[in-house]
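Regression check, adenosine monophosphate case 423:
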Amino acid sequence: MKVLIVGGGGREHAITWAVAKSPRVDKIYAAPGNAGIADYAECADISVMDAEKLVAFAKEKEVDFVIVAPDDPLAAGVADAFLDAGIKTFGPRKNAAIIEASKAFSKDLMKKYNIPSAAYETFDDADAALKYLETAPMPIVLKADGLALGKGVLICNTLEEAKAGVKEIMQDKKFGSAGNRMVVEEFMTGREVSVLCYSDGKTIKPMTSAQDHKRAGDNDTGLNTGGMGTFSPSPFYTDEVADFCMKNIYQPTIDAMKAEGREFKGVLFCGLMLTPNGPKVLEYNARFGDPEAQVVIPRMKNDIIDVMEACVDGTLDKIDLQFEDNAAVCVMLASDGYPVSYEKGFPISGLEKFAGRDDYFAFHSGTKFKDGKVVTNGGRVIGITALGADLVTARANAYAATEWVDFDNKYMRHDIGKAIDEQ
Ligand code: AMP
Ligand code: GLY
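Current build output:
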């Protein structure tokens, strides 16, 4: 089988690694891919948003199966373009990817179908939002409606901060058109956990749990980023919590999408808060998380193509989804200055130490080839993932392996997985 993977970050690198393990696959293409993905795939320099070129490429190469991994192309209907051209494609259609692409949509869906989440109001107009905030309890959470690289959420402790937030989102348009509408949400407290689920539109199967670290600095200080590290599983996600979420969140969400005529096939990522009043949904994503994929996929026992194909074919109920009884930690090596401003183009050394291993991984997020050498090409550069018998061992292994790799301006958090010690 010939497979095309659309995307070029660490998540796509982890997916490509898993696809390459499948005995059913004999050729992999990636668009655009990156210097790490190139170990397994022939990379084509096509934008993830260029549906026309992507479909033409898939036809020319006689691709049998496409995986659309990032949020932007899913929200723009790139999966639809492949499906409408008769190519088997993993990833939700645009009308289902809206569950991530519009926070107002997802909040309204949860309200209509009684799925536990924070109380909220939606605003199209800055003046109305400001008036509402005058009497709202603080802290409060402001969310740009649309896609904003995981950065369109502001937690405001005071009315002054909230007013400044409305200005940033709705008036200064810091997140572009994502801020034409805004959701104002009740502030919740508790442990956060990410549960990525496969779905074929009827059946939903949760994967093992994970936790992300979104802030740039140690002890959750600094700006929000795309994700500075992850661990899996979450020790706080007990069997009891999992049962509750299956009954009250996962299955009801898939059923709600079906009832709305928006059948969801692909990965539904549920960002949860384990509040004192039970688990509640923080957000949905319509795809694997990045860097959640980097700790979840290496622990999966199944052939990823079997599972993804079952999602497309509507036969997920026949799949026995299994994960290793171990743990994984991913520490993101970033460029100093991320997420604000940083330099690119520095050569990366030490990557050869990961070659051929299936216990330590260097998943490339932002890299490229320059004069035959791998160089830094983004804020997040490489996710160092290690497995271990338990979380403490996996974390020690991952931090040890961060020393194997070097480049100028290398930056990382030193407390990924700190919550493990508090269980
Ligand atoms: P989101 O992109 O919606 O997941 O939001 C990013 C981060 O903001 C989450 O991971 C939480 O840490 C925080 N957050 C979002 N919504 C809330 C909320 N209602 N209460 C408290 N924290 C929140
Ligand atoms: N790591 C969070 C996300 O992928 O949205």
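Comparison notes: The first strand starts at residue 2 and ends at 7. The pocket of adenosine monophosphate (ligand 1) is lined by residues 118, 141, 143, 150, 153, 155, 185-188, 192, 214, 271, 282-283 (CB under 6 Å). No diff flagged against the previous build.
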